[in-house]
Amino acid sequence: MFKLLPWRRKETKVPVTVEEEFFRPLARLRDELDRLVDRFFGKLPAAEEESERWGNVELTETDKEYVVKLDVPGFEPEEFDVQLSGNRLIVRAEKKAEKKKEEKGRAYQEVSYRSFHRLVTLPNVIDPQRVEAKYHSGVLEVHVGKKPGAAGRKVPVKAS
Fold first, then answer.
1. CATH no. for residue 81?
2. Disulfide engineering: 20 pairs with which of 15, 32, 41, 127, CB 3.0-4.6 Å?
3. What is the distance in angstroms between the CA of the first residue and the CA of the last residue of the chain?
4. 94 lies in a domain?
5. How many CB atoms lie within 10 A of CB 36?
6. Same domain assignment for residues 96 and 23
């Protein structure tokens, strides 16, 4: 089996901790197995790539505010929890639905659960008092105002 794997020189980096020394062979084995699987099956989509398809983020800037648009279909406006902590915009949504039905004397219960969590880091020039969120047709739009005087100024360039 080891003849299938390409030969590599040993790394010269010296482990810093006992944990690194212990887990180094396991990490190397995992990396080699990942490469082998990728060569055989092709590149499989990573979990991050899958999550990016749902809840895409669009950040735009105007003179007075930042506008953050998130694609999050299937929720109601009251199911969102939008918070501004420092310059971080935290958006959470949670939906739990239960359905009960009876057929021919048997009771059935169906439970579905969806959740969404996204953190967007904004520049430090935001005004936490001017935040507004709207939800329409599966798109959550959050407007975050800029601090007065946060607009940049043009610097003239002189010839030397």
1. 2.60.40.790
2. 15
3. 68
4. yes
5. 13
6. no
